[in-house]
Design a protein that fits this description.
Blueprint: H1 6-9, H2 19-39, E1 66-70, E2 76-78, E3 81-83, H3 88-99, E4 104-108, H4 114-126, E5 132-134
Helix pairs in contact: 3-4
């Protein structure tokens, strides 16, 4: 038989049990992770400016910029010369050799295909033109 004194039974346990607190924090973490995944839009969700918007602001264009235009059907113009997706890489390289490493101004219609815009960005990068900007109206 073991003898336990009365003073040992009356001691208050001074340790804090953090298991329920940890459980609550883990449940909250899981809830926030699920909500963050549901609220963030996946992929390339860039809203391009409306080219047909008639605002009074007219920005002065630089004459040495390389101007790339894309309309709503996906037709591409590089410095006024019409091209298509198959020839965009060669045309972008030709413009780079002719004008040098200049700023590329990309103006696209709101309904322009995103694949075409991505190919233009890729062609500019391959041609060595890394200073590309989207023109807004």
């Amino acid at each position: 038989m073991s003898m336990v004194s009365a003073s040992q039974d009356d001691e208050v346990m001074a340790e804090i049990n953090i298991t329920p607190f940890t459980d609550v924090l883990l449940v909250l973490l899981i809830i926030f992770m699920i909500l963050a995944a549901l609220s963030a839009p996946p992929g390339f969700e860039k809203q391009l400016p409306d080219k047909n918007d008639n605002t009074p602001q007219q920005q002065q264009k630089k004459t040495d910029d390389i101007e790339v235009l894309v309309n709503e059907t996906g037709v591409i113009y590089i410095d006024g010369k019409r091209t298509d997706v198959q020839h965009i890489y060669a045309d972008m390289s030709d413009v780079q050799h002719r004008k040098g490493n200049k700023h590329v101004s990309l103006t696209a219609d709101v309904k322009a295909p995103y694949g075409t815009i991505i190919r233009i960005l890729d062609a500019a990068k391959i041609a060595g033109l890394e200073d590309v900007g989207f023109v807004t109206s």
